[in-house]
Write a structure and sequence with these properties.
Arc Repressor Mutant, subunit A, 173 residues, mainly alpha, 7 helices
């Protein structure tokens, strides 16, 4: 049996490259997850040296943002806000507590609940953290409405993906 190969050459000089607008399966650069991964890595690398100046890691910074917003909250509430398991948050809180920027206490009504609060030292870091946020926002070169839109889209995507994760896994598996 003889197999023949047909090759065609076409003129593509009048074709515009819409590759940025196309969604193609397969390649790394075509993956939404990779674009998000790359953006998050870049953002984290930007924050890292600035947070080092106030002796916080990025995960510690996220916990401190919650404490500055709420004054005092439970470990489980922090975990829920960060979309992490409580046992994943505990080592972060341990390090914050050992540095003296956060404190643990037992809930007065339910001794099983551990409450976390920012200390005076932790509160003193807040204004420096705000300047880091401003620097990050400036670096993005996005205006307020663009930041708000991007944040809304990313949070909506996270919500949609978390709602579909188990159903998708069952369908694929």
């Amino acid at each position: 049996m003889q197999v023949s190969t047909l090759s065609t050459v076409s003129d593509t000089s009048n074709v515009t490259d819409n590759s940025a607008d196309e969604v193609r399966p397969g390649g790394l650069d075509d993956q939404l997850c990779f674009a998000m991964y790359s953006a998050m890595n870049t953002m984290t690398r930007f924050y890292r040296p600035l947070l080092a100046d106030i002796d916080l890691t990025y995960p510690q910074y996220l916990v401190m943002l919650i404490l500055w917003e709420q004054n005092e909250t439970s470990v489980s509430d922090i975990a829920a806000r960060l979309d992490l398991a409580p046992h994943a948050v505990s080592p972060i809180i341990d390090r914050l507590e050992s540095r003296g920027v956060a404190a643990r206490s037992r809930d007065a009504k339910d001794g099983r609940v551990v409450r976390i609060s920012s200390t005076e030292l932790g509160d003193s870091l807040r204004s420096r953290a705000l300047s880091i946020q401003d620097a990050a926002r400036c670096r993005t070169e996005l205006d307020d409405s663009e930041v708000a839109l991007l944040r809304t889209q990313l949070l909506a995507l996270a919500d949609r993906m978390s709602g579909h994760t188990q159903a998708t896994a069952a369908h694929i598996g």
